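Narrative of accomplishments. A recurring question from our advisory board has been how the design workflow behaves on a single, concrete structure rather than in aggregate. To address it, we present the structure tokens for one chain from the evaluation set, followed by the sequence designed for it. No filtering or post-editing was applied between the two.
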């Protein structure tokens, strides 16, 4: 039904016929399952998900075309990861009205299915591995893992109030197969300061999040890098398995739009001058700065006042350090220009 999606564009009859009968080894995923959202809905831009790392290999004819188109990379491109926070130069300037900073990535453990295809048992095994690994975190990363299944109502309400809880009922995720056996095998971890979070078995096996009030992007990134390393080391010690990492596509995610870094580094910042000058102009300026403006109510939310969520636009083909740098520089530039607009409009 999504006639304008990347699936409609790249899944030709020839390609479909070539791989339509393949079932992946890790969890018996098929191309039809991968394209479920594009088939079912009429509003998809991408429209395809991977059910396991094998999907990217077995259905490469389709996935490669979609990925190259979406991310604008060449067929021979390689992806390099770099989580060294010391390479980030400067930070968001002290005078910029930033409310909060949040950086998230996704990580999936090699050998288990991805959310759309993962089997019931694999999901339980991932949760067991993760809750074991998280229990070993120490220092400022130490915290508590809360399974969604059988969650106490007071705990649940607390997580809702902190905006930490992820819930079921998303039509896209349901059709893509990500909400099977809900809520079994899912959970949320956070450290005592509520600055380091981990979602288990949502859209990816893990979503790792570092966040805090204010604009210390470098500090948030540094904690994220430490947290990812600590969790990864613990999982490896426990199981011998590592996060799925491809030379071509970086960290493997269930959604091809997240491949590469899988990272969204964002701040909530007030831009009253730009708001007055016009949101269309702000959007165009952000495009040039390689950042993405959103309303502060979330991915599809509207706009509240003059506070925007500004994040890096790219995921694949750039390192994490590069993307954090682009976001920091972009926000500093936008604020400098915002003050010019405020003068112009006599604010």
């Amino acid at each position: 039904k999504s006639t304008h999606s990347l699936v409609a564009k790249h899944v030709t009859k020839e390609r479909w016929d070539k791989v339509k009968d393949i079932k992946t080894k890790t969890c018996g995923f098929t191309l039809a399952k991968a394209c479920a959202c594009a088939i079912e809905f009429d509003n998809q831009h991408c429209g395809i998900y991977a059910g396991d790392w094998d999907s990217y290999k077995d259905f490469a004819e389709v996935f490669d075309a979609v990925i190259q188109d979406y991310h604008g990379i060449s067929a021979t491109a390689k992806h390099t990861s770099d989580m060294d926070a010391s390479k980030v130069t400067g930070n968001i300037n002290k005078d910029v009205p930033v409310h909060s900073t949040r950086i998230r990535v996704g990580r999936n453990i090699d050998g288990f299915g991805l959310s759309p295809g993962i089997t019931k048992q694999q999901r339980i095994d991932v949760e067991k591995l993760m809750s074991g690994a998280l229990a070993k975190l120490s220092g400022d990363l130490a915290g508590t893992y809360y399974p969604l299944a059988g969650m106490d109502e007071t705990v649940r309400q607390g997580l809702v109030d902190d905006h930490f809880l992820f819930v079921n009922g998303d039509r896209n995720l349901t059709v893509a197969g990500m909400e099977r056996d809900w809520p079994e095998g899912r959970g949320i971890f956070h450290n005592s300061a509520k600055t380091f979070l981990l979602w288990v078995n949502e859209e990816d096996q893990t979503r790792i999040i570092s966040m805090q009030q204010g604009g210390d992007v470098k500090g948030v990134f540094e904690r994220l890098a430490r947290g990812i390393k600590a969790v990864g080391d613990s999982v490896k010690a426990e199981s011998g398995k590592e996060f799925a990492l491809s030379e071509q596509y970086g960290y493997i995610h269930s959604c091809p739009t997240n491949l590469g870094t899988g990272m969204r580094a964002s701040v909530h910042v007030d831009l009253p001058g730009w708001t007055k000058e016009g949101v269309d102009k702000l959007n165009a300026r952000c495009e040039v700065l390689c950042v993405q403006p959103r309303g502060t109510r979330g991915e599809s939310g509207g706009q509240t006042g003059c506070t925007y969520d500004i994040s890096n636009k790219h995921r694949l083909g750039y390192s994490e350090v590069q993307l954090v740098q682009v976001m920091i520089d972009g926000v500093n530039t936008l604020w400098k220009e915002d003050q010019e607009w405020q003068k112009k409009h006599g604010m």
